[in-house]
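Good day; I would like, with your permission, to put a structural problem before you. A protein sequence and the structure tokens that stand for its backbone fold form the material at issue. I would ask you to consider whether the tokens describe a fold that such a sequence might reasonably adopt. I set the record out below, with my sincere thanks for your time.
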Amino acid sequence: MLVWLTMLLVGVVWAQEAPEGSEEAAEAPTELVVAISPFSPFVTLDDDAPQGFSVELWKALAEAQGVPYRFEAYDNVSDKLAAVRDGTAHVAIGGISVTLEREQTVDFSLATFRTGLDILVRNEQAGLLSLQTLKAAATPGRVGIIGGFFLLIVVSGHLVWLAEQGKEAFSDRYFPGVFEGMYWAIVTASTVGYGDKAPVRWTGRAVAAAVIIVSLPMFAIFTAELASTLTVATLETSISSADDLKGRTVGVVGGTTGEASVKQLGATAFPYPSATEAVNALIEGDVEAVVHDAPNLRELKNQHGGDDLVALGRLFEPQSYGLAVQQGSELREQINQALLAVHESGQWDAIRTQWFEGDLGQ
């Protein structure tokens, strides 16, 4: 009996002390580790201190919560999220898209920014005519019609030159006589008829009549086909929306929502370690377009491509960015309350105006 009473007493004492020990283990950290990675204009790393929209927003949130923190730099989003999962970092900030896959391993705050994917192309792929455009349009049928018209000009030039031998209208020498005849055939076929060259003999005039009868419909077909060729070629080689990406080679950042979207559109995705490398591949002509988050893509276009690159500005696949914390962390609710306070105070709008312009997101 004494033994049982002793065991019961020990159990009661342990039960009373256990919660106190648990509370000590669950104490909030004295300093939050905030994981960041380069993603301008949200996070830009330099020698002095991190800068960007997300950095300024976090400073406002930390002030609202009254918590100390320090930034810890990582190479990319995947590394940041891994640090949050294993507890190395308490929160990850930047342009982190909220996805179902990520939500299964970390918890996200309310949206800090909403935007979408954009497409970056070279100028000649944005609808401008180029040698590549003409090559794409050079089908056998179109080449045959255009070649037939020029054959008509060559034959007509020879016939009128032969018919007008001995007259002053055309030179009796083969060169430049034949070229004069071809020049006359072109202006006659196009109904311009400058009058500086005209057949004198009846045989030459008969040739002229035949040329006019045959060339008028032929010239109409030629001009129509030429216009159609250029129009179709421009449409076939230009990229003006996400629908035009099907069958194209597109640079993306590996493991991002951009890569998944490009594959769904039927394009061939070429993953790169960073958006900067993808843009450089576009400049070198290794890919036909780059798909990435609109704000970051616009920033890289201004930094590397200038007027040689065009950001289409037709956003698709809406993206919501959030702050990531460990699953079940109480920080999530604290951050959400701070976000609401920052929005209601107008600080969020002020920070957005400082870093963004136009329709890149909200």
Summary: The chain has a mean pLDDT of 80.
